[in-house]
Every structure is written in structure tokens, then in C-alpha cells.
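Worked example
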Amino acid sequence: MNKLNKDNVIGISALLVHAANIDEIYSNHEKDLIKDFINSYLKNDDANEVLKKAEEIENNSNQLLNYTNIIKENSIEIKKDIIEHLWKVIISDNTVDQYESNLMRRICGLIYFPDKECAEIKLKLINSK
């Protein structure tokens, strides 16, 4: 699995924040899930600080492409991991609305991630709750 550098993790975390905000409820549970993602790539960094930077980026940008370009250049393992974290955030409130589903379809299209595999990850996570 190739590693993501700090800037990449901040950018992808901003995408996770965006996914969390789509239903206009940004819960502490969602923040914790995003911090789990941050900690899985940046062991020695302060996850709260990284999350704060990611939130600032997300607040100032409506360009999903900025974040997806980072992901697109990575291995399938990293893409899979990111898709899994996105779904964890989205399904953390036990509902998936059309905007969240649409976001995931768009992201998968932009990073060349197979829809079928995306759906399998979603099902696996829903079934493991």
C-alpha cells in the first residue's frame, strides 16, 4: 500500500468532511470516524489539528475534483480504503440519502473505482453494524 503524505491526507479528510456535511448533520461520531482515517495514515500527527485544516478546506471549496485527483493517482488498495472510510462516515447515521449516494457515484467515477466494488463495500459495512 503506498503511503499518503500529510497534504494528501488533509485533502482526502476534507472530502470526508464534505461527505459528512452533505446531510447537514456533522456529528461528533462522524468527526471521530474522520480522525480514525487521519490516524491510520498519520501516526504522529495531531488528528484534531489535521481535521481542523480539512474543515477549513472543505468550507472554502466546492471543487470535489481537487480531492479526487489526489485519490486517482493512488493504488487500488488506497482507493478502496478511502471509499470504505467515506461509506463509514455516510452510513454512521444509519441512513443514506440520494445526495450521499450521488456523491459516492461521482467520486467513484472520478477516481476510476468500480461501482460494483463500491456497492460491495457499502453492503459489507451496513451488514457489519
Notes: The longest helix spans residues 6-21. The chain is about 75% helix and 0% strand.
